[in-house]
Amino acid sequence: MSNVYIDEALLDVVGLSQFPELQAYIHECEPKSIVDGIANQIIVVLQYLQDQVKDNDDKLNILPIPQPIVPIEIQQVKIFKIPKSQLAANVQMYNPADEYFYFYKLRNKVEYNNGLYLCNDFMGFVFTNFLEELWPFSKHALVLGDDVGHKQNVMGYISEKGHYLGLSIGNVDQVTPIKGNTHIAIAGVYYTDYEPLKRATNDVNGD
Q: Which of 89, 102, 118, 159 is most exposed by smallest CB count within 10 Å?
């Protein structure tokens, strides 16, 4: 009955419109407005979205317990200065205007690059006092160079007493003084502890 079109004018002609029970039945069988159905659906969807937003907002308002921030310790390079007043006799600064020899230490690694001028013949330790913080874990050979052209076989090492310089005449045990009026540059890297050197050597060898 709900799918049949009913002409109310026709019912009136045949005299059926006088029966209220029939009119009530016809109105009950009429389909409900689609517009109302869509409106109801929209209301339900809007209410669902509002509830969802409120639920998410409640979750965001629950703040987590703050965790303490542990600062990361960054190792700083330490700079050590040895004044030229602690140079041995006959040893001067490469540049007379300089006041200090500089050593740069990061953890157990020490780097240096300094220049010397030997005003007279010299063999021995460059400094009269060498800082304990700069002592190498073992005797370490120096990287040397001179700019005078004396053709000297200058050798040297660094130990707990500091830099040692001399002139090799073909044998490690046969060392003589370096001729005066010689400029020497000394530079290098060494370790004050065995473990960092061991790790660096292993990295190079791929062990």
A: 89
